[in-house]
From TrEMBL:
Residues 34-194 form the Penicillin-binding protein dimerisation domain. This is Penicillin-binding protein 2. One of its GO terms (molecular function) is penicillin binding. Residues 237-543 form the Penicillin-binding protein transpeptidase domain. It holds the Pfam family Transpeptidase. The lineage of its organism: Bacteria, Bacillati, Actinomycetota, Actinomycetes, Micrococcales. One of its GO terms (biological process) is cell wall organization. It is found in: Membrane.
């Protein structure tokens, strides 16, 4: 028997010993996750738009809390013991019923949640009670300190901390970072063994996303579009501000913008940005590519004269009319644009081959996504010329029979302001990684659409639109030369009718040295729908604020004052 027991002892210690020791160690070790802080999203000045704050979940080791003894700090007298006394002390701090909380403290579990999302101050108050078995779990909470400001751009996260919209979704992987871990040895009642195993893999924080958004301008633009939508009874409205020459988008403001911290209160269709995702017919703002193409191709000059009736039938039998009846006029190319005449525009556009004009529309970015770093972007609709019918070939000359987003339309104006070179719009300047290195957004060289000379001529004609007597006079910004274009378009309803309209206004300033392009759209206003009336005032206020925000000095040179023709003198 001694030989049997001796042999068994040798076998257990020498042969099975290392394996059994590893099993025992595995039984004593616990590994917990160290969550990586989600990266911040900041505006162009580094002001926080989205961040994660430290929070604590609090749980109880029911095997340890039974050992709690509360004594009078002065006399040492025992005032209470166990789970019942612990519940009495914790209940007011956790906002819980004492009896209900006490029931959760009793049992055989080593961890039961008592409360979640406590602030560090809350946890320090609880920890000061020195109740054995009351243990913290460190976590984070996503907060949006600016409320609805830029909520349509920033987006939001779900309960699992993953991005569900906006930049939170688009850069979810970069913002998330890499979680770490902590492994320790514990005793029989769940306490950490001070001299035991302790292995820690630090978490790598998520990257910080630096946007091009100007928070103050964004806030102001949201105010202006909300007020305009309410005043005119529009279904929705939007504003886009782009910095000319860089493609940096300083503002994408939508009416009724979502609060990312409480996004469940907004309908799903109202949580994103319609300025990016909602296509609409540009109306007369879509005339600008037609005029630019005609000047670039040399088929007209700014002073070319046209006979412009209020109603005109083209050689293929299609008839078009201007918005308001008028006597036949003699207008220059500049006068046709200032009057926003459809009959004059089709005469100009008819001088260009369809495939050539289509090439200019594509060059300005119509019919394709801009590539901005936001989910859900529309490319709009621009069919190829071989699919145009006898009427569509003309309607596309004055902004109908195709659709764009407000972002695309504003980018088109920015291209004109940039001397005819198109820059891809972007809303992210770069990212800062966990090591503190800034990674700028890769940009591509701009693409020339029209010559600098043609761009200058288009701007000069657009100044006539915003001048006295033009359709865009209400968009004038005091002290600055403005170049703009108004737009009004019909909207097809569910039964195929045209019962609703939209008004829009796009422009740039200062006209002599363009710095900003601003686009405004008001969708389905209840009454008045002219872009020069309902959208122009929003343009005026937002453009004025933006120029002052950038410190752009007022204009000091006069506008070119192009001739509009004998009919306008």
């Amino acid at each position: 028997m001694l030989l049997v027991f001796g042999g068994r002892l040798v076998y257990v210690q020498a042969v099975q010993g290392p394996e059994l020791a590893d099993q025992a160690r595995d039984d004593r070790t616990r590994t917990s996750l160290i969550r990586a802080p989600r990266g911040d999203i900041v505006d162009s000045d580094g002001e926080v738009l989205a961040t994660s704050v430290e929070r604590f979940n609090v749980g109880v080791n029911q095997l340890l809390v039974r050992n709690y003894v509360r004594k009078d700090p002065e006399t040492g007298e025992v005032l209470g013991t166990g789970a019942a006394e612990a519940a009495k002390m914790l209940a007011p701090l956790l906002g819980r019923d004492k009896a209900e909380l006490g029931a959760e403290l009793v049992g055989e579990s080593t961890f039961v949640y008592l409360a979640k999302g406590l602030t560090p101050e809350d946890w320090r108050t609880i920890d000061a009670l020195r109740i054995p078995g009351i243990e913290p779990e460190e976590t984070t909470e996503r907060i949006y300190p600016n409320g609805t400001t830029a909520g349509n751009i920033v987006g939001f996260v779900g309960r699992d901390g993953h991005g569900l919209a906006g930049l939170e979704q688009r850069f979810n992987e970069q913002l998330t970072g890499t979680d770490g871990s902590l492994t320790v040895e514990i005793g029989g009642t769940g306490q950490v063994i001070p001299t035991g195993l302790r292995e820690e893999e630090p978490a790598v924080p998520g990257e910080t996303v630096h946007t091009s958004i100007d928070r103050d301008l964004q806030f102001f633009a949201q105010q202006q579009i909300d007020e305009a939508v309410a005043k005119w009874g529009a279904q929705w409205g939007a504003v886009v501000v782009e910095e000319i020459g860089t493609g940096r988008v300083l503002t994408i403001a939508d009416s009724g913008t979502v609060d990312p911290g409480d996004y469940q209160k907004w309908a799903e269709g109202d949580r994103g940005s319609r300025a990016v995702s909602a296509p609409y017919e540009p109306g007369s703002t879509g005339k600008l590519p037609t005029f630019a193409a005609a000047l670039e191709e040399g088929v007209v000059e700014t002073g070319s004269l046209f006979t412009v009736p209020d109603r005109l039938t083209m050689p293929n039998g299609q008839t078009f009319s201007d918005n308001d009846p008028h006597e036949t006029k003699r207008l220059t190319t500049a006068g046709v644009l200032a009057d926003s005449s459809n009959t004059g525009t089709v005469q100009i556009g008819d001088r260009i081959a369809d495939d050539v004009r289509y090439g200019y529309l594509r060059g300005f970015g119509f019919g394709q996504p801009t590539g901005i770093e936001l989910p859900g972007e529309t490319g709009g609709v621009l069919r190829e010329p071989d699919s145009w019918d006898s009427r569509t070939r003309y309607t596309t000359m004055f902004g109908q029979g195709m659709s764009v987003s407000l972002l695309q339309n504003t980018s088109m104006v920015a291209t004109i302001g940039n001397g005819g070179v198109r820059m891809d719009p972007r809303v992210v300047d770069g990212r800062t990684n966990g090591d503190g290195d800034f990674l700028p957004t890769e940009t591509v060289e701009g693409e020339r659409v029209i010559s600098e000379e043609t761009a200058g001529e288009v701007i000069a004609m657009m100044e006539g639109v915003a001048a006295d007597g033009g359709t865009g006079v209400l968009g004038q910004v005091e002290g600055y030369r403005i170049a703009a274009k108004t737009g009004t378009a019909q909207i097809v309803d569910g039964s195929g009718g045209l019962s609703s309209r939209l008004g829009s206004y796009v422009g740039l300033a200062p006209a002599e040295d363009p710095r900003l392009a601003v686009g405004v759209v008001m969708y389905k206003p209840a009454g008045m729908s002219y872009g020069g009336v309902i959208a122009a005032p929003v343009f005026r206020e937002v453009m004025g604020f933006g120029l002052r925000q950038l410190g752009v000095p007022p204009s000091t040179t006069p506008a070119p004052n192009l001739s509009r023709g004998p009919g306008q003198e």
